[in-house]
Amino acid sequence: MDLARDDEGRVIAYCVSSIDQNLRGGVESIFVTIEHRRMGIGTRLMDGSMRWMDGMGVRTRVLTAIVGNETIHQFYVRFGFLPKHVLLERVIDAGQEKGPEQLIK
């Protein structure tokens, strides 16, 4: 985990990366506080993650990006991350089981 701190020592950004037993690297989480975005902090954190993975011999890298925030998707493209597949998810409220026929109206 890499942290970025402001002048008072408060954490303003972080990047959590991992490498599995098959040398597949993952960016598990990256976050920059709203007031510190567009200052290059996320870029420096991603650069550090990519360098660490390079040094460990990682060839494949993955991350999960949430649909609806295409601005961040463009950020990831700068580091060579491109969509590979789309995962569709259906969430059921507790105690409320619906079949497909009830979902289509």
Architecture in CATH?
A: 3-Layer(aba) Sandwich
Number of helices, where a helix is a run of at least 4 consecutive DSSP H or I residues:
3
Summed up, the domain count is 1
Overall geometry comes to globular
Strand content: 15-25%
User: What profile does the largest beta sheet have?
Assistant: 4 strands, mixed
User: For the residues shown, what is the average pLDDT?
Assistant: 89
**Oligomer category:** single chain
Low-confidence stretches: none
Radius of gyration: 18 Å
Query: What is the fourth-level CATH superfamily?
Result: Gcn5-related N-acetyltransferase (GNAT)
- Strand arrangement across the biggest beta sheet: 1-2-3-4
Number of strands: 4
Portion in helices: 25-40%
Secondary structure class reads alpha+beta
What is the succession of H and E elements? EEEHEHH
Polypeptide structure, described:
The protein has helices at residues 41-55, 70-77, 100-103, and strands at 2-5, 11-19, 24-32, 60-63. It is an alpha+beta fold. The protein has one domain (2-103): Gcn5-related N-acetyltransferase (GNAT) (Aminopeptidase), CATH 3.40.630. The longest helix is centred in the middle third of the chain and has 15 residues, at 41-55. It is globular, with a radius of gyration of 18 Å. The termini are far apart.
Please describe the structure with a list of short key phrases separated by commas or semicolons.
105 residues; alpha+beta; Aminopeptidase; four-stranded mixed beta sheet; 3 helices; 4 strands; 26% helix; globular
